[in-house]
Amino acid sequence: MHEKDSFFRVNSMSKEFSGEQKLRIVLESIIRNVPKGEQSKKYDISEEEFQTWHDHLIQNGGKIFDSSSQFGSGPKRIKKKMSPLAKFFLSISLLGNLGLITFGIVYIFNKDSTKDGWSQGSTNSIDSPIHLTNDPAVPNTAQIDIDSSTPKEIPLDVILENGSEMSFRLPNEENDIGNLLASPNSIPAPSLIPTASITEPANEVSFMGKLYEGRHVVYLLDVGTYVLDGSESVQKFKKFKESLIDSILTLSPNSYFNLVLYWNLRDAAALGKTLLKADQENKKYAIDWITSLGDSAESIKSDRNQYYPKELLSFPPSAGIIGPWYGLSTAISFDPDLVFVMAGNVPSYDRSEVPRSHYEGLGKINFDKLQGTQVDHTNVNALTRETARRWFYAITPVASLPSSEAEVENMALARLGIASHDSKKAVYQPLAWNKSFENFLSSLEVGFDQIPQTHFMVNLPQHVSWPSSLLNSVKEFAESSRGSFSQNLTLP
Description:
The chain has 15 helices and 10 strands. With about 500 residues, it is an alpha/beta fold.
């Protein structure tokens, strides 16, 4: 502690502080942001006494702006009594102005204290900004000389003048009061809003690794028990179902679809009576139906007509339309853009499941042969028997060949449907597939330019083919509808 400070404190204790001294002490604390405890210790006064001065200044400081009747010696004036509201706004204005002055002085002092030398000297010396003057010749590093008897006092008007004239200017920025406030966020420059691009609804259907144009699609799946004839056919049927599920899952929500199952000659069932929106719920119904079919004849028979059987469909095909044409007629009735036909070896349908009414419109039918009357192969000429025998040798592994050539010939003729060596196996009369195709075309109410694009995927057992009348008509329709035909695809 410096000797001057000690001497000042001893002297300050021996006398009362004047009003101006109290004001300077309180203003120094406010302007320099000196804590109450530190300021009280500096002037050897109690914190309660300092707080009393501080509160008195805040509460009664506005009175110095009253008329001179309180401070002057002239005659008293009759003052107009202010309303409470005016007093309130006056107090707010005074405190606001005092706060701005205090904020600016503290801001400048803290920022430029090193440059201007306002804080030089002992921390206990009275070197607050109230000792500064406007004379530029007076250095800012001037220190206070303390008289041996009393501290040097600065008139109150000088304090207020210095406080009011304290520069608020930042370097290189004059008269910019906005810089004392927080910098507002810059207003972004207006820009044109880009034109909103409207995404066109998806107009494609993915099936078996290919994309097809269209939003309305019908899947037509052959579920006759003949699709499970042989282990290879079972595996291909599984692949058909997997490809069908994958395609349904990838349908856009903007698409519409239906699933039609058909079998034998004139049996079919659909997922709905109209095209369904490809939402998650309808997709789930379709996938559940496909997976319920299983891989056995029993599961197919029990689950293939669980939704809308043919009796509930609004468009029953005309008589004389059978097999894949019956299923395709049902699919076209939904007015789709695309039809995918997954067909099996429908000519080998189970005759025991087909009523006679399904043969109407096909011309004269020999029901004796349809029921399996045995045909004597002795009427088959030698060239046909020889050709059948050589064909059977070519397609049958050596380990599976019969022991005698006569047995080979009988098996070959039976396989080709020409004759039978086994009385338990029937030889069937070929159906009138050409007639069925004619009936199908005549039932169409639109021209070929308006029929849906139809894609046929045919899955047949090894060494088996459709009758030429059926095969040729299917290929012709696929080409006319701008579709495609494929047989025994190598499915992924």
